[in-house]
Amino acid sequence: MREEHTMEHPTIQKDTNAWIFQVWASFLLASTITVTGIAYLPVDLWMKGFLLMGVLFTLGSAFTLSKTIRDNHEAQRLINRVSDAKAEKILREFEMRDVA
Fold first, then answer.
1. Using CA atoms, how far apart are residues 43 and 51, in angstroms rounded to an integer?
2. Which residues, 6 or more positions from 34, have their beta carbon under 8 angstroms from its beta carbon?
């Protein structure tokens, strides 16, 4: 049977519930106010549709950009951890040679 490790990795960062609430609240508030503002603009319906389409594309692009930045950051952290492990192995082998 395989032994399960319950210890968390020390480099994992977790956001607080207050921060998560603040982020979602500000996103929902900003989206609601923007859409409401577009709805009450004194312009034709096609212009409101165009503005709403622009807002939706901008929101989608912002999510995609933030995900891409996060993914690249996490990939770089993994590469750095692998490089650090290789360097530690080389140093250990070097130190063992000095001892012998």
1. 11
2. 55
Percent of the chain clearing pLDDT 70 (strictly above) = 86
The tokens for 33 are 């106010």
pTM above 0.85, yes or no: no
Residue 24's pLDDT is: 95
CB neighbourhood size of 90 (10 A)? 10
pLDDT score recorded for residue 4: 46
Cβ atoms 11, 76 nearer than 8 A: no
Enumerate the H helices of the chain as residue ranges: 17-39, 45-99
Q: Spell out the domain ranges in the chain.
A: 17-99
